[in-house]
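Handoff note, outgoing to incoming analyst
You'll be picking up this chain. Sequence as last confirmed:
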Amino acid sequence: MWFALVALLIVAIAAVLVARLGQAPAPCLPHAYERPPRPGTFAARAIEPLPPAVRDPPTIEAQSAEWRAAMGEIGGRLRRAGVRRVIFVHGTFVGHDPTTVFGALEGLLAALSPPLVLGLKQLTKAPSDRVLGDLGNYTPEYVALFEAATGVAAERYVWCSANHHFARLRGAARLLGLLADGGRARLLLIGHSHAAQLFALFTQLVYPARTAPRLWAVLREAGEPVDRLAAAARAAARARIDIATFGGPPRYSWAPSRRCRVVHVINHRGAEPRAGALGGALYTEGGDYVQQLGIAGSDVPPGSAKERELTARLDAILGAGCDPRAWREHLRHGARVPHHGFTWLVDYGDRAASVLPNCLGTLFGHGVYTTYEAMLFNARLLADHFYR
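Most recent structure output, in case you need it:
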């Protein structure tokens, strides 16, 4: 009897291993804009009247007792769920090299002095921090306040932020290097705008995807340390990772994994998962217009011939990069909801309340997610979604 039970257990374990090893890689096709979102993959959520964080100064001591208590409770939920690290990732045009001019010299500078490269990256990121502050941008002070309020280690990841496929792929690959020593602890990745595409590419590199060999080939040709990054990808595959995107346009596909959960948050008016007409952009009548416009076809060609060639190769994998005709065709579908993960449609209440346009002050509805005023609401939404 015992022999039969042991034999049955061995057979069951073997079947599970064979099923996992033989699992077909995810195809990871680009977003199909004509396809409506499936019921049950999105829901509307109202903004809650919560106390805002004080931005001047943005220190934990300057915050109200009510705000500190609320953020502390959320931090406790994160820690009980095993979250030991939170990484904030910015979107397009607010990184250290949005035109990729610095990237062309990076190899030479690194050979001369690696600390020089790090110093220049910090220097070139500083202007966007000064000009934008927390509007569509994660500042060092914002991240430090989140860490102090929750008691969970937090940091920000800075990438070049150029608006094309190759810049995002390189950003995703270098994010792997940042996570190489993370072990099996749970990570929370929070990204704004096209950081969503970095995260999607991250999953394609880390989890089984048919696109991965071609992505690695592009990275190798670009001179990235593929062997080291592939080892980091294998390590990341063992970690538990939660990913939250804010205002990310639906574009790249995600490779699914039981160890990775994904949620999207979009500034949107109404319960219907479709973007409105562009005529309301001056007053942000429909929510986030940059999320609506940043779809396939909206990219800017890279500056160097080499990166243009690599980006053109990625078009076949990731969908149209710079293609105004394709962009106009996709735009008419008003797609809001990505195919993978769950999406919260949240009216952040940034619609103009007067006759004066508010588009610049809200970055056309795209800047609200990263503000101090929204920190508590966003943290509570993620805690409610991931860490009940």
